Amino acid sequence: MGKYVLKRLVYIVVVFFIVSFLMYSLYNLIPTDPARAQLEPMKETLRPDEYDQMYRDLRRELGLDDPLFLRYLKWIGLYPAYGEIIVQAQDVQGNPIQGAKYTIMITDRDAGGKLQERPFRIIETNAAGIATQKTSHGTYKVLQTYVPDGYTPDTEPLMIKTEGSLQGMLQGYFGYSAYFKNDVVNAIREPIKNTMFINIFATIAALGITIPLGIYIAVHKGKKVDSVVQTVTILGYSIPIYIISLIFMYFFVVRWRIFPLIGSKTPGMVYANAWEEFLDRLKHIALPVIVMTFASLGGMTRYVRSSMIEALGTDYIRTARAKGVHEKVVIYSHAWRNALLPIITSILGWFLSIFSGSVIIENTFSLNGMGRLYWLGLNNRDFELVLAIQMFYTIVSLLGVLLIDLSYGIVDPRVRVDK
Fold first, then answer.
1. Beta strands 158-161 and 83-88: pairing type?
2. Please, what is the Cα angle at 77 between 71 and 83, to 5 degrees?
3. Whole-angstrom Cα distance, residue 351 to residue 354?
4. Is the Cβ–Cβ distance between 361 and 291 less than 8 Å?
5. What pLDDT band is residue 149 in, cutting at 50, 70 and 90?
6. CA of 384: how far to CAs of 177, 245, 268, 389, in Å?
7. Is residue 100 within 8 Å of 122, Cβ to Cβ?
8. What CATH architecture applies to the domain 83-165?
9. Helix/strand/coil for 354
């Protein structure tokens, strides 16, 4: 088992890097320019030559002029995303020089496409005689352009390689959200809590209803209760979830006034304790949970029913009944365990979906969840945020596939995943 898990983990790592590169490449093919988007509000206050130079400098700092694969390595955390130029000014006795100025030179192409060397930044030493500048990782030519009176200037240019640091996804840095003006981790923190809070209740409610209901109608196949449940579940399976949401909102909010319409908690409410806050949030998410549960009844109930009918028609079930085994033992010990193998994929998939948001539900009920956050990121072209969400779902999916494979061996002793 350990050898199998280790081999699968190696596969997961390989697939993760392949998927991450493909996702990063696809989003970088979209014609956007983050540097121009940042400078656009300042365009009216700058001269054309100033705007052009600031634009080129910003593209350099953001790494937009680097090759695609190099940008991917920076984003994933396998190549230094940024570096720091450190210059130290000292006199002949080794004492620090404060106020010395250095010009960082770079070579790039001008508006006409010709290579030129030009000043990039001017830095000044502090009381310790040290001047620093954060920029993209590389080697830079640095010239001393000014020293205070009484000191001898150094006319020799310095070639300084930046002190690079890895800052990517593998180090836990998921990027900066241009829309929220904050780190992606901080932008995701609250929505993922809300999504998990809603989905935990929806998943437990759905599985708690669909599995017993599917078993019951399979045992009573062809009877009136089977026909009624089949009719009701097919409605939930066929009607779009936004239509179900509108119908439930009309009855539970407009007509009966049982639940609030939108939001995840009462605006401006001051809670006396954590329990009061929990109850208020529970009241607000009750209607979305009911909608999600009703919409999911059809698929899982019919799936459980189909698997149970197939299991109940096998020879070993007829043999168990002929031997006089109690009917509950036949259903739950023999039939259900064998019917569980094809169902377990869906069950574990539901539990893994606890982390994923529903774009339609969260937008309909104005819930601050992962689905709505993903939608906002796409609409506002905040691709750092979108990529982080996509890669989070990729990791959850890859680990979920491994968990499903291992669960087969637990449910069915005939399956040996270590072979």
1. unpaired
2. 75
3. 6
4. yes
5. confident
6. 6, 31, 32, 9
7. no
8. Sandwich (2.60)
9. helix
pLDDT at 414 over 80: no
Closest CA to 396 of 357, 358, 353, 362: 353
Q: What are phi and psi of 142, to 5 degrees?
A: -125, 130
Report the mean per-residue pLDDT for the chain.
Answer: 87
Q: Token pair of 85, please?
A: 């130029």
pLDDT at 417: 57
Retrieve residue 132's tokens.
């620093």
Average pLDDT, integer, range 267-283: 88
Select from 212, 238, 236 the least CA-distant residue to 225. 212
The Cα-based distances of 144 to 102, 104, 123 in angstroms read 4, 9, 10
Calculate the dihedral angle through the C-alpha atoms of 16, 21, 22, 27, rounding to the nearest 10 degrees. 120
Domain at 177-411, CATH homologous superfamily: MetI-like (1.10.3720.10)
CA separation for the pair 210, 330 (Å, rounded): 20
- Alpha-carbon distances, residue 121 vs 54, 85, 115, 118, 140 (angstroms): 11, 11, 18, 10, 11
Nearest-CA neighbor of 164 among 134, 143, 129? 134
**What are the residue ranges spanned by the domains of the chain?**
83-165, 177-411
Q: Which residue has the tokens 């989070």?
A: 392
Q: Quick one: which of 200, 186, 221 has its CA closest to 311?
A: 221
Rg (CA), the chain: 31
Tell me the one-letter amino acid at 49.
D
CB 75 within 8 Å of CB 168: yes
**Residue type at 162 in one-letter notation:** T
Take residue 286 and report the two structure tokens written for it. 């009750």
Strands (E), 138-211: 139-146, 158-161, 176-177, 182-183
The set of residues, in sequence order, having a beta carbon less than 8 Å from that of 27 and lying 6+ positions away, is: 383, 386, 387
Q: What are phi and psi of 119, to 5 degrees?
A: -65, 140
Geometric angle at alpha carbon 195, from 13 and 23, rounded to 5°? 35
Distance from C-alpha of 197 to C-alpha of 201, rounded to nearest angstrom:
7
Q: Is the pLDDT of residue 214 over 60?
A: yes
Using alpha carbons, select from 252, 266, 287 the residue that is nearest to residue 362: 287
Say which DSSP state 165 is in.
B
Share of the chain above pLDDT 70, in %: 97
CA 253/CA 262 separation, integer angstroms: 10
Q: Per the confidence metrics, is the pTM higher than 0.85?
A: no
